[in-house]
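Session log. Operator J.P. requested a structure for one protein chain; no other inputs attached. Running the standard single-chain path with token output.
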Amino acid sequence: MTANRGLFSRSMRLFSVALAAAGFGVACNFLIKVEDGCTRDDQCPSGQICNVRRRFCAVPVVERCNGVDDDADGLPDDRESWGNCQPDVANGTCGGVRRCTQQGGRWTLSCESNAPEQEDICRNGIDDNCNGVVDDGADCVANFSPTRGLTIGTNVASEGEGDDAPAHQVCLSGFILDRYEVTQRQYAVFLSSLQQDRLRIERPTTVMNPTVTYGRYVIYRNGAGQDTNLMFVPNRPGPLVLQQGDGYWRSPSDESEELPVLGVTWFGAAMYCTWAGKQLPTEAEYFRAARGDMGTRPFPWGADAPTCERANIGVNGPDGGACVGAPLPVTSLDMGRSPEGVFHLYGNANEWMYDWLDTNPNHTANNYYMSLPADPLRNDGGVQTNSWCNAYPQGPLGPDAGSPITQPENAGLYCQQCRFARGRHYRTVDTRIGIRRWLDPDRSDETVGFRCSRAGAPRNRVAP
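Structure written below.
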């Protein structure tokens, strides 16, 4: 390499590239660094992407608390929105907002806390009322009473994918479910609360399913040195990709804050729910919330077929295509609420269930559903019960482990140790409510989100 070429390869060239975000009217800026010789992502610094054709590494512009208008939006740092923060609840300080201020001649990002025992505000990712649970006010969650005789699965092959039989009745103790899918704003507060030097963005080196290609993920390394994939990161920034700053995370725009956080792995969802004082809902809890106390309601809102006024899916749009083609705010489509007031149980985002999925390799039989007799409820000493209710009086938690599901089109495995999401999503063209999204718990994509629950049957939790 000549001296001139070496000087050129070490130089920095900054310019902006506007990326139109379809359906949102949002523009994302980038910093481009000329990096001679870059041919793949792992040759770039963490979080950057290699443009193989032009051989440079790209990184999104993220506003920093430094007194400079890095993202060129015209707002000085002391007027920028730095998102919410979650102080130490154990010490009696409730949630607040981040402020960038100049202290002693230096710009510093700090948390401006609310006073203790504030009224709980929904979807801000903060334990406003200092009770140890995030976003649990009366307007944030729905209460479900105990249920006996809830039907899970179906014996009608056309309603599922072959692994939904036999239909069987279960019993559930009372539980509490989030009214809304977890938002980008909430998940950004969670990521910001973690020890930042344990987070990185890159392709994972150890995966559960080596037969498929993993993209880049937000990876968390715990105190024991074990890595956990929390969140899939698409190759290009956009309205669904959280931004990482100096010690904080945030949505790419104010418009994105109320969108469901997508691309979260099962581990990333379970860890959030634990951090929030909650847990992932079981499949049985989802059936109760989406399909009524008997599990027979066709859709969360009732018997009417899905329309774009009720469900954000990939059909029924004005041109016959998708309703929107992108996720909607979690408070949207009031007509699609369940009678208990839960939004988007169908459409918008697939939602992770707590349960493993145990089927035969070709996905034609559900081993867990067949593990007990599908007997009807009977009166036993004045109590309505059956085999499932006797075995799981507070509600089934699913099998002890997930089985593999084959992927015939490429001779690989769709998932090696399957968990699953339910609820359909903004791109789906299969409107059957019983369809699952199968994935290994360390993988995800841009259609998978989640919500949390509380109470119900005790279950294991994934702590940071």
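Operator note: The chain has five helices and 26 strands.
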